[in-house]
Write a structure and sequence with these properties.
about 270 residues, mainly alpha, globular, transmembrane helix
């Protein structure tokens, strides 16, 4: 996969999955909406756009560029091990996904990081656009972390592109308001995080918010004891969002941008619970 085409590849995949999930949500909704799309989608999509601009404007190199440079210079762990290329690809994707899981746990555990991450959780509904609704500064920090991991690990540049596509695609998928047959959900969640699995994480009940942190692979939650199979009140009875943010007029784009500074932390950070 050509590193120079990374932006185009990711953009085409992102738009394709977004449109597909939006269509499937409309055809097979899991829950009735409490707020109209026109009220939520502009702010959600604007968040990812501003975040992408911030990353490209402030980071000297993004993860795939660092991985390509590490490959040329022989930097990083994998570039100094005699292992088959296929193994390097698999290890790279798994390590990067594990790092994102741990990052997600930290955003719930550290109050300063939670200030940024609560922008994601304050959505009053959950659908595919919630999967890209992250504060631009959190997007920047996440990109910086992946860049550092790429430098230390030395993954193949193509594997980094593959991971970024998988991460974006599965985030759109597992946040989707999509009803899957129970048997299909059970089969898929053996490997990947499904919408029903991740929806639990967006419950207003704090002990449910602190579960199911995975974005792509579902194994991490089972491995580290953060897996919860179903919400206590069921998927139709559960309340989405944060208890301190129920007024939609406080959740427009401009207010979401300043929420980390002006917002109420609530009782969410793990070390307060």
């Amino acid at each position: 996969m050509d590193v120079s085409q990374e932006r185009l590849v990711r953009l085409v995949c992102f738009v394709g999955v977004l449109l597909s999930m939006a269509a499937l949500e409309a055809a097979f909704p899991r829950r009735p909406r409490t707020r109209p799309r026109s009220e939520r989608w502009p702010a959600n999509l604007a968040m990812v756009l501003v975040g992408a601009v911030l990353v490209r404007g402030l980071l000297p190199m993004v993860p795939v560029e660092v991985a390509a440079l590490a490959g040329k210079k022989g930097w990083g762990l994998l570039n100094n091990l005699e292992i088959p290329s296929a193994v390097a690809w698999v290890v790279s994707v798994m390590v990067l996904d594990g790092v994102i899981y741990l990052q997600h746990v930290l955003t719930h555990a550290v109050p300063t990081l939670w200030r940024l991450h609560m922008v994601h959780h304050a959505d009053l509904d959950i659908d595919c656009t919630t999967g890209v609704r992250f504060h631009p500064v959190e997007i920047l920090l996440s990109a910086g972390l992946k860049t550092a991991v790429a430098a230390a690990l030395g993954p193949p540049a193509g594997a980094v592109i593959l991971f970024e596509v998988l991460l974006n695609g599965t985030a759109l998928f597992n946040h989707a308001n999509l009803k899957l047959p129970v048997s299909l959900d059970r089969a898929v969640r053996l490997f990947l995080v499904t919408p029903d699995m991740h929806r639990v994480h967006h419950s207003v009940i704090i002990r449910e918010t602190h579960s199911n942190f995975g974005f792509c692979l579902s194994w991490w939650d089972r491995l580290f004891g953060t897996y919860k199979d179903q919400p206590e009140k069921g998927h139709l009875g559960m309340t989405i969002g944060l208890s301190q943010y129920r007024d939609p007029t406080r959740l427009n784009f401009s207010r979401l941008l300043i929420l980390p500074v002006t917002g109420d932390l609530g009782r969410q950070p793990i070390n307060r619970h």
